[in-house]
Give the backbone structure.
Amino acid sequence: MKWIKSLNDLKEHIFSNKERVVENKKNIIGEKPSDVYDNFCNEISEKLTDIGFRYFPSLHKLKLESNDKKYLLFVKFSSNPENVANKYIELKGTFYIDSIELKKFTKKNPLINYWNKSIIGRDLGILIDNEKGNVIWNLANENDYNSALKIIPEICKTKLLAYFEQLQNVELVTAEILKDNFDLSSPVCTTQYLLCHNKIKEAENYLINFLKKKEKLINDNYIESKAEINKNGFPKHYIMGEGYGYDIALLEKFYKLNLNKK
């Protein structure tokens, strides 16, 4: 098991990937990495289908519906094209939770042309140790293989299912957002989530607090963006990466929110 937390960790991992490209050319004999990876994912799925997960082998993905059919939980596995038989077969795992209501709302009320369905998406490592970063297993290593085969079903059946239940509670999620304990992937997505559940005042308070929290970093961008929108109107398309100040100015104007409260 390897943890990727820092940029240096990622650089070292990428460098080791390049070394494996060279190894791959040596015609190492052994079970094909893709077969080991496929078999492992099948084994994991067998341990999770009994609690309602459905497995999609071609996608290496598991899916679970909430009882009310309003939420979807996915567990997705991925590997590495530079795997080497008997030496290195990479396994990564992520989970993400989608909301059917959020998708419907944002498609009907997009921010210009932007809609969203995802509440959260994270590496499985967060469920093992939130402080360590992303986790990678080497399935060519027997200890890693057995460790992953034991740990992944355990955390999915306990921590992930509990997390899935919590994120279906709109009041709980809203409270955590306003306490600054939880956020969707961006102010745009978080605001759309709140508006989806008719939390207009909460959306306004969230954005006001976001502006205060990051005032030194985004205030100029926010003021300039408001002036630009007031002068020229909305852009034809929503563009990510223009800055949080821009996003908040756009949200304020487009969804007619009041951010001038004292």
About this structure: Residues 170-254 form one domain. The radius of gyration is 22 Å. The chain has two domains: 2-166, 170-254.
